[in-house]
Design a protein that fits this description.
Order of helices and strands: EHEEHEHEHEHHEEHHEH
Strand content: 15-25%
Oligomer: single chain
CATH superfamily of the largest domain: P-loop containing nucleotide triphosphate hydrolases
Largest sheet: 6 strands, mixed
CATH architecture of the largest domain: 3-Layer(aba) Sandwich
Number of domains: 2
Structural class: alpha/beta
Strand order of the largest sheet: 2-3-1-4-5-6
Number of strands: 9
Length: about 300
Amino acid sequence: MKSGFVALAGRPNVGKSTLINNLVHEKVAIVTDKPQTTRSEIRGILTNDDLQIVFTDTPGIHKAQDRLGARMNREAADVIQGVDLIYLVVDGSVPFSKGDQYVLEMVKNAGLPVFLILNKVDQMSKEQIIKNLASWQTKYDFDEYFPMSAKFDTDFQDLVETTAKYLPEGDLLYPADMISDGAENFRIAEIIREKVLECLEQEVPHASAVVIESKKFRKGACYIQAMILVERAGQKAIMIGKKGSMIKKIGMLARKDIEQLLQKSVYLELFVRVEEEWRSKDSRITEYGYGGANRTL
């Protein structure tokens, strides 16, 4: 059989997480319309009779403003070096930029087969798609080109079959029934953080982190207590909302998704605490599981 690792690389908000979720037919990575949603390597596993592909979603490569951003960029670079194939995912609906050039150079230096995934073609005309593909062809000799809409396409058979041709012969890398190797607590924390990102604007969601304080199973239900961390007292007030309205909304939305993940009733309690400048502290970034927390600092 064929088995191997495929890294999804690209700038923030190009659709990497949406693509990996649809490839493995399950939500393994959170998705929002805000940049830097993905903070850590997320793996989704696709297994067929004669094929296993481990797709690795990486943090969007961006101009870092703090230690967390620098850690995220380094993790993306590290992941790219340790796979068999790279999907360079780009937003075809926006012009090529310096950020695209930076990511392209990183991918080139990996010395691996690279597929260009021209995403968001649902926002483009046929003429724009052809023009953009021709433009990207002048920038690098990609091994394959795939224009697509990660959000709306439902059949990725051609992409999967073509990917298999570039992977080595090998055994299963994970059990055949495993969809993600992400720890359950981390996946729950990410669901809560996704709802924070969806419900709040400006700097508040980006300054937040989520830690699972306790998780207990009793009588067919799961009781979870989670702490949302922010960097300033003003952010805490916004997170809680008037008479607790915002934290209740976040909890309600998160609970529904967590119940789907765990396949049981969930009782969720959320708390908010100020942890000043945690995004600039390596110890805190690692403790919260972000920016390559499981890698050597």
